Amino acid sequence: MAKLVQKLIESKRAGIISMAAKDVAEVLLNDASEELTDDLIADNMIDMMIPGEDSVPVLMTLAVKYLSDCPAALQQLTKENMKLKNLKAQRGEPMCWTDYLSLPFTQTVITETLRMGNIITGVMRKAMKDTEIKGYFIPKGWCAFAYFRSVHLDENNYEWPYRFDPWRWQDKDGSNGSFTPFGGGQRLCPGLDLARLEASIFLHHFVTQFR
């Protein structure tokens, strides 16, 4: 994979001209700071490929699975998306980013899928100093694994945690610390809005064009 990306970078660099960038490689190659080496550019490109190949497709697949098991949620999702599709057709307007992310029930479906599916099982964190958390001592240099599944499926955090219930999010925003599919703090995944957008686009076209 690394060799393939390096060849792409070399071919782009050989033929690059000063114009609007057409893809990620050209955006990185046009970096004005000139601090990005070819190795750093390759690392960034490979890092962006992983979510597109793994996490977001899994999110889409699980959303279809959970919706198939919950006819009421599927019906409400379809109704919401058909309403927007017909409105856009009447106005002769194309769909845009804000349209997809403005669908409230669609977002609750995605949020509940992220909670139950736990697309990212957890994250590793290294203790930079001796730390104590809830009575547990973690020495400096040790690694701790934050296991999202144990939090998302904990009945102390969610009533009936193993039940797919998008409506549980209608009056919540998931900011209470018990919902962390994209991590948190300084290491919050920068692709969280893109992941939601991609899932929203998929679900919109799926429920408005297929059974």
Written overview of the protein:
The protein has 211 residues and is mainly α. It contains nine helices and four strands. Helix 4 crosses helix 7. The longest helix has 21 residues. The radius of gyration is 21 Å and the shape is flat. The model has no long low-confidence stretch (mean pLDDT 87).
Compose a concise summary of this entry.
The chain is mainly α. It has 9 helices and 4 strands; from the N terminus they run αααααααββββαα. The chain has helices at 2-15, 24-29, 38-53, 55-68, 71-91, 97-101, 104-117, 148-152, 192-209; strands at 122-126, 131-133, 136-138, 143-147.
Give keywords.
single chain; 211 residues; mainly alpha; Cytochrome p450; 2 domains; two-stranded antiparallel sheet; 8% strand; flat
- Report the strand count: 4
Q: Quick one: biggest sheet?
A: 2 strands, antiparallel
Strand percentage, roughly? 5-15%
What is the fold-level CATH name, i.e. the topology of the largest domain? Answer: Cytochrome p450
Mean pLDDT: 87
Taking all Cα atoms into account, the compactness measure Rg is 21 Å
CATH homologous superfamily descriptor of the largest domain: Cytochrome P450
Count of domains: 2
Straight-line distance between termini: 37 Å
- Tertiary shape: flat
Helix share, percent: 40-55%
Residue ranges: pLDDT <50 for 5 or more in a row?
none
CATH domain class name of the largest domain: Mainly Alpha
Q: Please tell me the CATH architecture of the largest domain by its name.
A: Orthogonal Bundle
Number of helices: 9
